[in-house]
Structures are given as C-alpha cells and as structure tokens.
Write a structure and sequence with these properties.
Phenylacetic acid degradation protein PaaY, 32% strand, single chain, eight-stranded mixed β-sheet, Hexapep, UDP N-Acetylglucosamine Acyltransferase, domain 1, Trimer_LpxA-like_sf, twelve-stranded parallel β-sheet
Length: 201
Amino acid sequence: MQVYSIDGIVPVVDPTAFVHPTAVLIGDVIIGPRCYIGPNACLRGDFGRLVIKEGANVQDTCVMHGFPGTETVVDVDGHIGHGAVLHGCYIGKNALVGMNAVVMDNARIGEASIVAACAFVKADFDCPPRSLLAGTPAKIIRELSDKEIEWKGKGTAEYQNLSIRSLQTMQKVAPLTEVEPDRKRIDIPDVKPLYAVKQQD
C-alpha cells in the first residue's frame, strides 16, 4: 500500500485488513478490522476524516474524500462497488453502493440499503433503512426484500473472505507465457449477481 502522512497525521490500518499495494491512503484515514481496500482505491484524508469500519470493503478505483471538518464513513459491513465516489457522506451498516455511483456531502444512506450502479445521490439526501435508490439524481424506488438484503450480505462476506485470501496467498509474480493444461479456476460457487438470484424464484 502507498501510505502518506500529512500535517503529522498518519493513516491507521488494522492488521486484519487487506489494503492492496496500489491503493493510496493519505492522512486521517482509519481502516478497521477485516476490511478490504481494492487496487487503485484513493482514500484522501487530507481535509476530512475517512473511517472504514469492521468488515467493510472499498473496491478498486473508488475515491473517498471530504471537506475540512467532516467525516466520510463506511459503517460495519458496508460494501462500496468498483469506481464509486464517496464525498463527506455516511454509508450505513450493511449498505451497498453500486459501481460508479456518487454519494455527495452530508448524504446519509440508511442501514441495509442499496444505491444502484451509476446513481447520483445529492448532498443532504437522507435515505431510510432498507431502501433501493437509483437514478440521477437518485430517488427511493422501493423497500428492499429480505432476499435482496440476504444476497448483499453474502457478497460482503465473500469480500471479507477475500481479505483473508489476499493476506495469505496474494503475491507479485511474473506472468506465464501460455495457458497451462487443465488450468484451474477460482471456485466460489455461492456468489451470483442479483438478477440471476431473482431468476431462480
């Protein structure tokens, strides 16, 4: 990981968290236990504080930042999808922010809610628990079902497992020059996209 202090403030990373070597942490960043911070994520605590609580994940190319005096928080088991931007907001416990979504200043995403991919959540938006948000600007579409919340929890658990797998087995290597015979696959059978889970009903 690329870790920088600023104004004498040093990022904090729990030893059970995995932070990819290409991720950038600057200043007032606090990463809790069992978190996953993905490749090329940029967590800039050079103005406000950034807090990633236990079991949360912030995936590849995500950006977190905030105005001076603010806290940008991903609460316990929060799940931040590829390329999302969080700026001075609060992401509730067990909530999911989809790929390339943007959540703006002082917005609050309620517990066990889902922000759809590419949504834009405007400043000061207050999202109640168990909500599905989508659109630009984002609006509450409906309440989430128990099955959808269960699906989200399983996905987050796999990112918690990925932290362990990465800490134990990830290493920088030279690429092979050809595909080996009987090349094995990474096998995680229980993880499916939500649309596929719904098709099983």
